[in-house]
Amino acid sequence: MEKIINENKQGQSLTLDKKEGNTRKLFIESYGCQMNFSDSEIVASILNEQGYNTTQNLEEADLVLVNTCSIRDKAEQTVRKRLEKYNAVKQNQNPNMKVGVLGCMAERLKSKFLEEEKIVDLVVGPDAYKDLPNLLAEVEDGRDAINVILSKEETYGDIAPVRLNTNGVTAFVSITRGCDNMCTFCVVPFTRGRERSRDPQSIIEEINDLWNKGYKEVTLLGQNVDSFLWYGGGLKKDFEKASDMQKATAVNFAMLLDMCANAQPKMRFRFSTSNPQDFTMDVIEAMAKHRNICNYIHLPVQSGSNRILKEMNRLHTREEYFLLIDNIKRLIPDCAISQDMIAGFPTETEEDHQDTLSLMAYVKYDFGFMFAYSERPGTLAERKMEDDIPNAIKKRRLNEIIALQQEHSLMRTKQHIGKTEEVLIEKLSKRSDQHWSGRNTQNTVVVFPKGDYKVGDFVNVKITDCTSATLIGEAVGYSDNN
Ligand code: SAH
Ligand code: F3S
After folding, report:
1. Are residues 391 and 427 in the same domain?
2. Number of domains forming the structure of the chain
3. H helix count then E strand count, the chain
4. Which ligand lies nearest to the CA atom of residue 181 in the structure?
5. Sorting pLDDT into bands at 50, 70 and 90, what band is 19?
6. What is the model's pLDDT at position 20?
7. Which of 84, 231, 453, 457 could covalently link to 246 via disulfide, CB atoms 3.0 to 4.6 Å apart?
8. Residue of 18 and 434 predicted with greater confidence
9. Ligand 2 center–CA 98 separation, angstroms
10. Which-ligand-closest: CA of 314?
């Protein structure tokens, strides 16, 4: 889905508007996918009602929460290191602080966490955040507390998330939770449970509220957004049994995109993540129809080999994927496409690896997120297959994939030179406080001198130069979207 961000870096610590009268201090940080960052906003909102305001300062926190990722072993190791850090702070500076683990690792390890990590007082899975007030009461009484029950219905649609660490311009809105796809390498179906879609009405309300607060861009989030389906809630399989009347009022992902784009015609919309097997033509058509749906699709493929795709339980072939790419480019010629790839899945041969490189050569992705296979406990691949590709080979193949992607990224960014493109200004450039940083519709970062523009403006920028990841340009005026 999700995009794995910040996994190797220190997780962002987050801030929110303070609620008056709140006296307790919450330090919350997130690792892993965008969904975790979005979930932390839900958690902060729930705790805001329980007397907690956030702090950036571990030393003064009454409660420390870490929202965790299990997607690869390295992600879990990062969290273990953070727990060591919390422990040191507790021993030396803040003896009364309580520590809780949220998210996928909490769900995967359950009560083992309380046994393995003495510092942990609280373990809460991704569907149990509404139980936090009760769990915290137990912790205050001196008992460890745990709730890792997964739900078939919970979407947190009724919770207005507080926005943490926000630029005030871009926000995430979650639309589905869980995943039913069961890719054999992936731990997500076990840690986030069954797939369920959120009430479209509550999505539109959240979007309208964001617009009224000055936000200009929303990314709709889900592990697998294309399988969004609402006819009143519940699981996809119930829909097949549903009456015609329910079907007549059903909303699928293409319809949801249409609703969002119409509800706020000047707001930009993105979505993540798409699984090729669930991506439909009507989504491409909705994108082509609405100027405010960005021309960018994150379309993970994982491998270019039909045999490996099958072993991964990815339910499409390489040829079907090419057809999808061709259809996207036909209807939206300037659409940017990005990938996720896994190098060294069990039994992967050199020939399979070459298939991955040749698939990349066909698509020439704008960017990508590439990983060496990491065996995850409990997944089908772990139970049925041996993790038989030596680390050195995984790494070499991964490096070849990364090198090829870098070539393609540079080729793609160069294609923007000389064009004038609409950019939404998000923040100061990392390199210079005299430059703004924003993104064009294709999700490429664009940097340009500030002029009189401000954060949140849509500006036309003439692109003059680039690296493989960033476009450099000069503003030529406001776009007509302001
Ligand atoms: N829902 C998304 C992916 C979620 S996980 C989809 O449709 O593909 C994000 C990415 O992490 C995946 O796309 C995959 O490339 C990578 N990933 C997941 N499990 C992994 C594992 N066991 N080892 C290495 N990479 C993995
Ligand atoms: Fe994981 Fe596949 Fe779902 S990668 S999140 S099981 S689409």
Report:
1. no
2. 4
3. 16, 24
4. 2
5. confident
6. 83
7. 231
8. 434
9. 33
10. 2
